[in-house]
């Protein structure tokens, strides 16, 4: 078929070169955004009297039909077209005739693709934010139900101090909350419209860029036409934020995998999110958690690929930038599926609370509290640290724990130990004494949970999700 740019050329493009150059195979998912941008452009052209009202209405009717037919599956986007822009324009011309050729007035494919990708990415930022909010809702529900579910806290993968499941989950709440804040930050910075930038130097037509920007829910138009068509910072930022989301998911998955092991047995993953072995009938494998952990590198790869593509590109648009799509689309899809599946796994996972509490008691997680007990008896902390260290060594040699020692054994190490030590080093006391903001004590946790409830009840984007007058995004 004839190309939109064919007038300059006499010879035919090599078929392999044409296929290599074409992007229709992956940018066809931008069809909705392309029609949305074209619709705004046509409204503005008529407003500026560059098109007549009759021409506007004819083109708009054609665009509506294309949208409806694509959605219904009646109109197929095939690889006979170079890209989604040429598909929409060619089909429009078939539908409405010569007037369809006026659609591209005052516009270049450079600002057109910049707009399409920005509209699409903006929508995916919002989708990701909604999935993160759902995940946070599930995490908060677990926190609310497990204020007294005791478990060991770890450093270096060794038991350190007792904490609660609510407190442990609260750490991930903070991580994913920061991820949502990144979404809001990206959205705010990217929400400017490149349409009207032309190829790189604007246009001689009296376009109203504020009008088209407002129609599509942007905060305003971009202010430099060269940057408008060559900027992919917003996409790099989004991929970076998605990589951080995946890093957080991967850390959480790693812990769930450990907790699910025979050695720990802290959790039971629902059958819906587990698989078995083809040879070992006893196996129940945490495959979803492992796959989420594994797919993290896939998303990192998309970020590194785009950074590498952009690092040597001079102003303004270059064909290299077509490489911004395939891996980015894959990364967006990957993160979305990981969030959906991980949230489902978390929602259905069961906890073995007695096993978790027993584990907390079997790793000297109350040793710091024993030292604090001695400080309360007037022993300097450094001396108390040494005394409890000797006590732990004694327990290791006897294969026992601090709370199981007799008073006589305790006092053989230090005369400051009394009957009240047993209560002081119980899991309940160890946790409840930690009342500083951010600690696992119940009063501190209840305050934090209330803060989280208020946060989730509000709109963290602060109303930045402006509605387009063209469609409900």
Structure description:
There is one protein chain. The protein is mainly α and 473 residues long. The protein is 59% helix and 4% strand. It has 19 helices and 6 strands. It has helices spanning 15-21, 24-27, 31-47, 53-72, 84-96, 109-145, 165-190, 209-215, 225-230, 233-259, 287-310, 326-348, 353-361, 367-376, 381-398, 407-413, 421-424, 427-432, 442-457; strands at residues 150-155, 158-164, 192-193, 220-221, 267-268, 350-351. The strands form 3 sheets. Strands 1-2 form a two-stranded antiparallel ribbon. It has a two-stranded parallel sheet with strand order 3-4. It has a two-stranded antiparallel ribbon with strand order 5-6. A hairpin with a 2-residue loop joins strand 1 and strand 2. Helix 6 runs antiparallel to helix 19 (442-457), helix 10 packs antiparallel against helix 11 (287-310) and helix 11 (287-310) runs antiparallel to helix 12. The longest helix has 37 residues, at 109-145. The radius of gyration is 30 Å and the shape is elongated. The protein starts with 14 loop residues before the first helix and ends in a 16-residue tail after the last helix. 39% of the residues are buried. The mean pLDDT is 93.
